[in-house]
C-alpha cells in the first residue's frame, strides 16, 4: 500500500493531501475524505488507509492548510484533487466523498457542485446556518442537486 502526504498544485499554491492506495493498481474507485476543522489527523488518515485496503484510492486534503477557507476555495481545492485522482490511478467514473462535522457540510455542498461525485456520506454536520460571502449556501439549500443519489435502503 502507498501512503503519505502528497502536494497538489492549486492555482500556484501547494495543497497537502494524505493519500492511501493499493500498490501498483490503477482505475481505482476514488474516495475524498473530508476532515472536521481539526484537519487531517490520525483518525482521518486511518480511514483513508482502511479504504485503500478495500481497493480504493483515498485522498484526504488538508483544507485547513489555508487560513479560513471559503466554500469557493474548498471547491477549487477539491476540483484539483479530483483532477489529480483522474490522472493518477483513479477511476473518474467512480468518485465518492465522505466527511465529518464541517466535512459533512462540505460533502453535500461539493456533491452538488461536482456532478462527477457518485455517492456521498456525511457522518455528521450542520444542514443549515447563517450565510455569508464565504459560506453562501448550506446543505439544506442544495438538497435538489444531490437528489440524484439513490435513496438508502434498509437491510
Structural notes for this entry:
- It is built from three helices and six strands.
- It has 155 residues and is α/β, with parallel strands linked by helices.
- The protein has one domain: 3-Layer(aba) Sandwich (Rossmann fold), CATH 3.40.50.1820.
- Strands 1-2-4-3-5-6 form a six-stranded mixed β-sheet.
- Residues 151-155 have low confidence and may be disordered.
Alpha-beta content class: alpha/beta
Q: Whole-number average pLDDT?
A: 86
β-sheet strand percentage: 25-35%
List segments where confidence is low: pLDDT < 50 over at least 5 consecutive residues: 151-155
Brief write-up:
By secondary structure, the protein is an alpha/beta fold.
What are the defining features of this structure?
single chain; 155 residues; alpha/beta; Rossmann fold; six-stranded mixed sheet; 3 helices; 6 strands; 26% helix; 32% strand; globular; disordered C terminus
Which helices and strands occur, and which strands form pairs?
Blueprint: E1 2-10, E2 13-21, E3 28-34, H1 42-53, E4 57-61, H2 71-87, E5 90-100, H3 102-113, E6 117-124
Parallel strand pairs: 3-4, 3-5, 5-6
Antiparallel strand pairs: 1-2, 2-4
